[in-house]
Amino acid sequence: MSKLEAWSNKHLVLVNTVIFGNQNYWCQNMFLPVAVIKKIEEAVRRFLWKGNMQGHYMSKVKWKNVTEAKEAGGLGIKNLREWNTVCMIGQIKSGSFWSLEGKSTDTSIWRQLLKKKECVRHLIKVKIGDGKSTNFMHDNWHPRGILTHIFLDEAKRT
Asked: Record's superkingdom (predicted)?
């Protein structure tokens, strides 16, 4: 933490590089416990608003606003719960994650990952190259969203 305190005038840059840089490895290899995520977020808040890791601090804005993208008026700090899930989904190398179903023989981490796919679907966009690895109906490549969702929503309205 002394590395952070020595550079207190660069709070946002340090939060994004030092704190999130260190936890990226863990986010990509396991679901972080909620208690760990809360501790990390508390350290980030304290450092961001106070400039060091000791004592009390006063939040200047809601944490939800801080984690918004810069384009949306936030500071662009990652929401750790969402980021952890997105990183774990990134470990899938083949097939469409969106069409996978759980099995009784799956590991607990895999079952957790499958439960979270609907929570992060809107966060993932597919860049279409030659189209070989894109699932036309289930991947989020269209500006309006996932085609199966669009068609189901429109069918429900008619």
From this structure: Eukaryota
